[in-house]
């Protein structure tokens, strides 16, 4: 019963990680000189 839950969590992480990566990349590229 734990396998479907872990699959859903993994798919959510895989789905959300590219979005967060794009936003972080945009922030890093736009605020590139602030670091």
Could you walk me through the main structural features you see in this protein, from its secondary elements to its overall organization?
With 35 residues, this protein is an all-alpha fold. Helix content is 83%, strand content 0%. It has one helix at 2-30. The longest helix has 29 residues, at 2-30.
Task: Summarize the structure in short.
The protein has 35 residues and is mostly helical.
Distance between the termini: 46 Å
Shape: rod-shaped
List low-confidence stretches.
Answer: none
Q: Compute the number of strand runs.
A: 0
Biggest sheet, open or closed, and with what strands and sense?
none
Mean pLDDT: 71
Radius of gyration over C-alpha positions, nearest whole angstrom: 15 Å
Q: How much strand?
A: under 5%
The helix-and-strand class reads: mainly alpha
Counting H and I runs of at least 4 residues, what is the number of helices?
1
Reading the helices and strands in chain order gives H
Number of domains: 1
Share in helix: over 70%
């Amino acid at each position: 019963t734990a396998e479907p839950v872990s699959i859903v969590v993994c798919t959510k992480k895989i789905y959300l990680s590219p979005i967060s990566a794009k936003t972080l990349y945009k922030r890093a590229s736009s605020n590139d000189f602030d670091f």
